[in-house]
Structure formats: structure tokens, C-alpha cells
Amino acid sequence: MMNADMDAVDAENQVELEEKTRLINQVLELQHTLEDLSARVDAVKEENLKLKSENQVLGQYIENLMSASSVFQTTDTKGKRK
């Protein structure tokens, strides 16, 4: 009977060990996923800053073109009429 009890304890220990191993592997996989997502977020933030900067440059360029063009100048009808 002692042998049967020992076998049952060994089987329980084996199941626990397998469960712990599975959980450890799952945690490691989730850590890698988190690292990948974190790196992706950093890359997207960097790209976003770059695009914002480019948009500011383009916006200023467009403003300069508009201010240099007579088509976009405001007309003062009171001053031109006598």
C-alpha cells in the first residue's frame, strides 16, 4: 500500500511540475510579446515625431507660398474704391 501511495504522490508531483513548466513557458512567451510590443510602440512614437516635424515644415512652406502669392492676399475693397 505504501508503494501505491508513493506512486500517487509522484504522479501528483509530475502533474504539478508539468503545470509549472507550462506556466513558466507561457510567462516567458508573454514577456517576449510585451518586449516586441514595447519596441513597436517606441518605433511608432519615433515615426510620429518625425511626421509631425515634416508636417510643420510643409505647413510653413505652404504658408510662405500663400503669403508670397497675390492670389491668396486679402483684398481691401474700401481702400481701392474712391
TrEMBL record:
It is a peripheral membrane protein. Keywords: Coiled coil, Cytoplasm, Golgi apparatus, Membrane. It is found in: Cytoplasm, Cytosol; Golgi apparatus membrane; Golgi apparatus, trans-Golgi network. Residues 20-54 form a coiled coil. It comes from the Eukaryota. Its main location: cytoplasm. Gene3D superfamilies: 1.20.5.170. Belongs to the SCOC family. This is Short coiled-coil protein isoform X2.
